[in-house]
Amino acid sequence: AKAAGRNTYRFFEVAMAETARSRVRLQQELGHALAAEQFTLHFQPQMKLDTGEVIGFEALVRWQHSERGLIGPGEFIPVAEETGQIVSLGNWVLREACRLATLWPEALRVAVNLSAVQFRSSSLIELVDEALAMSGLPPERLELEITESALIEDHDGAQATLMALRSRGVRVAMDDFGTGYSSLAYLRRFPLDKLKIDGMFVRSLDSDEDAQAVVTAIISLARALHLDTTAEGIETAEQLVMLKALGCDDVQGYLIARPMPSAEVAPYLTRIRGE
Ligand code: C2E
Ligand code: CA
Ligand code: CA
Ligand code: CA
Question: For the EAL domain, which residue ranges apply (predicted)?
């Protein structure tokens, strides 16, 4: 048993060393990728439930790796957050999303994900102003998605940042709502525009009564606070019907469309208008 324990220990030691090495490599590669502009944005439509019209797109970053192909954000955003590289990557995303949105044939909204680190950084408002000025995108067309973790540490700072964004006309959505630290008590304090209901709850809507209860609660909370609701990760027609019955405002998910390159946005809009 002792030997087995030692072997297990050695196994973890080796695995951890390998993880650390691949982290360092990833960090170096990320730095290079930023300089070489190897990132690209895909856009996923958000649809209004009562009319079926597309109201905007969420920008989702991908890494066009020279050897490994297209890498999803789940693989590199956490590392970029740890190393601080998220600030420059995030700023690139913000600028690029604003720029690309101005090329769309309709004045639809573009939603951009912000890491907590970005949201809390003192340069955020300045960078948002720059991205809007450089692109010429009207502030009303920009929506920033933040997570509960962005708000928990410094309530006054977060409130000031949200007020500054609001005064410009930029909208703010609370992403992954229901999965984070419960900021329920503070929610009222913060000037938000929207709650995004996490796909985790949406996925189990048809099978799990607890998920239904959670979604119902989030929607009534949002109503009470005069916030919009977007359900994400919607994959089935059953989920769509249920969300509509529960009074959810908007939906986003593979059922509507998968995230697409910016060049496909115009043809997509033409196609759905023709339907
Ligand atoms: P998120 O903000 O919750 O984005 C939704 C994720 O769900 C996206 O994954 C999207 O492709 C995926 N998705 C959309 N519809 C469906 C569906 O019907 N079913 C399923 N199973 N998945 C669906 P993606 O693009 O891999 O992004 C993962 C996460 O990475 C995002 O979650 C967000 O937290 C983060 N992320 C993406 N882009 C950025 C960015 O530019 N900046 C920052 N800070 N984070 C980003
Ligand atoms: Ca998001
Ligand atoms: Ca989300
Ligand atoms: Ca999520």
Answer: 23-273
Question: What would the DSSP string read from start to end of 206-256?
Answer: TT-HHHHHHHHHHHHHHHHTT-EEEEES--SHHHHHHHHHHT--EEESTTT
147 in ligand 1 pocket by Cβ < 6 Å?
Answer: no
**Cα 60 to averaged position of ligand 1 atoms, centre (Å):** 6
Of ligand 1's listed atoms, the one at least distance from the Cα of 196 is 3
Q: State the 10-residue block means of pLDDT for the chain, 275 residues long.
A: 60 69 85 91 98 97 92 94 93 98 97 96 96 98 94 90 97 90 75 95 90 93 95 96 96 98 97 85
For the record, the structure tokens of 164 come out as 């500054």
Residue nearest to atom 42 of ligand 1 (CA): 113
The reply to whether ligand 1 has any atom less than 6 angstroms from the CB of 113 is yes
CA dist 131 to 58, 206, 210, Å?
16, 41, 41
Does 228 sit in the ligand 1 pocket, CB within 6 Å?
Answer: no
Nearest by Cα to 100 from 42, 172, 47: 42
